[in-house]
Please model this.
Amino acid sequence: MSATTRATPSAAPSPLQFLDDALVELRRDGLYRSLRILDGEQKAHARFDGREVINLSSNNYLGLTTHPKLRDAALRAVKELGVGSGSVRTIAGTMDLHMALERRIAAFKKTEAAVVFQSGFAANAGTVSAILGKEDLILSDELNHASIIDGARLSRATIKVFPHRDVAALRRLLEETKDVKRRLVITDGVFSMDGDVAPLRDVAAAARDHGAIMMIDDAHSSGVLGRNGRGTVDHFDLHGQVDIQVGTLSKALGVLGGYVCGSKSLIDFLCHRARPFLFSTSHPPAVAAACLAAFDVLEEEPERIERLWTNTKRFKAGLARLGFNTGTSETPITPILVGEADLAMRFSDRVFERGVFAQGIGFPTVAKGKARLRTIVTATHTEAELDQALDVLGSTGRELGIVT
Ligand SMILES: Cc1ncc(COP(=O)(O)O)c(C=O)c1O
Model:
């Protein structure tokens, strides 16, 4: 795409010219990306843009995107129930499978009830915007996911951002805002670009001490942290102390969707007020069936999570030996911090040419000057693949002067 002025019948400049100008700026700043096209299955070794690569860019933590049980469940659902649900949940689009999935999630997470949304994004944005209004206050970690930020904006509540994982600052804000009747403290469980973990015990205690609602986004903890991948609340043994838990079915669970867990009243309320639940069609039966099968796999094959963590430790140790700065990551999401976006994109492109797919990430996904390669190993990478990826990252990093 180039910055040309579109011809219009009156030869006047296109009213969308500003978009072309913005794209020129993205290119100038090294932030313009073409989509990499996956040819085949989403796996640890995959074919993108016609090239075989070791795939360090997917959220397919446990390799469930191609698990035979999920595949069979989806195929059966297509054969028995067709390909679409045909309606939003509140009209004619609630199937037995949707209800079974919600019961399964609530039991797995040890909460009274659960509701499934079309995506984790919809779960976060739909929940925050439903439960808060313009008299209310949201206290949000500065690195929280975009779906939380969008939900907060939609709610029209006042938003106060606390510095990343800074519980003392959160407590100060809670102290200063005592007079606000309804307050929500919200944090990611695992931060999606840095791979660090929220200090949930202390964050939840701060919320509780000030009578605030506590909500966690466990998108990157679902299937990764806690017993059988039950998430951050289970990891910190905080059952009953977090009012709202969001999770995703789109990452470690290998399929698509998001969910909210909590009290019966919370879920009942969301079924009446969360706009994605009310105004967007529910999952096709194959998605719900595959998600149900994914929970079976979490419980029946715990060795996948063990393998994920073994691989994570091996890969992190290798990056440290090579001298890369991986920030504060404690989970399979391991950023390789580079600084300028342009350098990160060159690094990403060069390792790709050499058979390693590690996506470069720049502004606005991360702050300016904090560009990086974002890597995620999975349970299904072999040791040989990880070692080969480390060789390529190391030699390319040295060539580009990122490490010595
Ligand atoms: C922290 C976090 N929350 C929510 C989401 C949204 O989840 P989904 O992909 O299921 O919409 C993501 C996905 O990128 C995420 O990283």
About this structure: DSSP finds 14 helices and 13 strands in the chain.
